[in-house]
Amino acid sequence: MKAYLEGCKFLPKLNNENSSKRNATYKERFASLQNLVLIMFEQDNVLVPRETSLFGYYPDGSFNVILPAEETTLYKEDWIGLKTLNEAGKVKFINLSGHHLQISISDMKKYILPYLEDESSR
Asked: Which residue ranges run through the membrane (predicted)?
C-alpha cells in the first residue's frame, strides 16, 4: 500500500486514501450526488480487477479474492462518501455483458438516461 500511495498520484487522491491528506470537501460533494450509477462490464479487460468499476478491490496482501465495495476499507470508513450515498439508496450497481465501456444504446436508455432527465419531465 505504501508504494501505491507514493507512486500513484491520481487514484489515492481521488479515493481519499491518504489518511493525513483526506479532503472533507471532496467527500461532502461526492456524498451529495443525487445518484451514482456504477457499471461493471463482465468482459472488461482494461480494469483489473473489473470489479473496481463498482469500487470492489483486493484485500491488502491478496490477489485471490475480490472484496465487494461494502467490504472495502474505503467504504466502511466512508472515505469518499460512497457508504453515505449507498445507505441513502443513491448508488446503482449494474453488471452488463460486454467489454470496457461498450454499452448498447438500449442499456444506456435503461440504466443512464433516467438519471439525466429532469424529474419534472418524467
From this structure: none
Task: State the maximum Cα–Cα separation within the chain, in Å, rounded to a whole number.
Answer: 49
pLDDT, tens digit, 9 for 90 and up, residues 44-87? 999 999 999 999 999 988 889 999 999 999 999 999 999 999 99
What CA–CA distance (Å, rounded) separates 36 from 51? 16
Q: Is 122 a member of any domain?
A: no
Q: Which domain holds residue 47?
A: 2-117
Let me know if residue 103 belongs to a domain. yes
CA angle at 51 for the pair 48 and 54, rounded to the nearest 5°: 130
CA separation for the pair 27, 82 (Å, rounded)? 8
